Amino acid sequence: MIPQIKKILFATDLSENSTYAFYYAIHMAKRDEAKIVILHAIEPLPPMLITFEDFVFKVAKDRIKAVKERLQKFSQKVDARIGTSSVEFVSNTLVRMGDPVEEILKAVDEEGCDVIVLGTHGKGFLEQTFLGSVSSSVLLRTRKPVFLVPLPSENITNDLI
User: Residue 78 pLDDT more than 80?
Assistant: First the structure.
């Protein structure tokens, strides 16, 4: 028997592909009467800037504010397309500083999520082999189901995003 999905972690980098993946998260939430936790992880600043603590704090605060504004625009764009408010499905929005993979894994546990929804960029073999990717790292390290959404064909993308 498949466990019921009550909470979905939607991790986003705010790209077009993430917007497309959010449609799937909304669909799953509607279908299963689940809630969505939105997560955006901001990569840490380079170590050379960490010595300037006041500067780091201000930059981090400014980056988090900018991301929250982008998340709001992102949600409005999706809402206009689906004809309903995505807010009713979202139980929490997290913006964290840290490695995206680590933050996704922590958020899944802390928020009690049953499934993870991620957009993938469809990068080439060499790039994925040498650099790794968030989606493949999450797949390897989590015990939760992961729903990976590739960016669709250009015709569909233009209609939805």
Answer: no
Query: CA-based angle 145:149:153, to the nearest 5?
Result: 160
pLDDT (0 to 100) of residue 102: 96
Whole-structure pTM over 0.85, yes or no?
Answer: no
**What pLDDT does 157 receive?**
45
CA distance 68 to 86: 15
Task: Give the CA distances from residue 20 to residues 77, 80, 114, 143, in Å, rounded to whole numbers and listed in that order.
Answer: 11, 13, 20, 24
What does the alpha-carbon distance between residue 136 and residue 123 come to, in Å, rounded to a whole number?
A: 11
C-alpha span between 113 and 7 (Å, rounded):
5
Q: CB-hemisphere CA count at 13 Å for 58?
A: 5
**How far is it, in rounded angstroms, from Cα 138 to Cα 123?**
16
Q: Please give the Cα distance from 120 to 20 (Å, whole number).
A: 10
| The pLDDT of residue 115 | 97
